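seq:
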Amino acid sequence: LYDYALKIFLKRKELLISDKPFIYGKIDSKSAEEIAGWAVNPDSVDAVKLNLLVNDNVENTVTANLPVQDLIALNMANSSHVGFVFDLENKYTDKDSIKVIVEGENQEIE
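struct:
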C-alpha cells in the first residue's frame, strides 16, 4: 500500500510542478477483447483523451465520453459521460506491454 501511495504522490507532485491537472481514472476491465474504464479531469468539463500504448507505441486514441452510471451516484464526475473502451480485437499477447495513458501526459490510468 505504501509503495502505491508513494507512486501516486510523486506523480501528483510532478504534475503540480509542471502545472498540469491530475486526471482521475480507473481501468474497470481488461481482457483480450477490450480495455474499459473511466477518466475525468475534475477541473474541466472537457472529456479526457486517452492513448493506448502497446510496446511504447500509440496504437489507438479514444475520448472518455461514454456514460458511466456508477460515477453519478458517487458524484465523482462533472458528467456521467467519462467512460472509455479500447477494442483490442484479440491482436495482442501476454508478451505485449499494454498501457492506457492520458494524451499529451505521462500519466497512466491503472
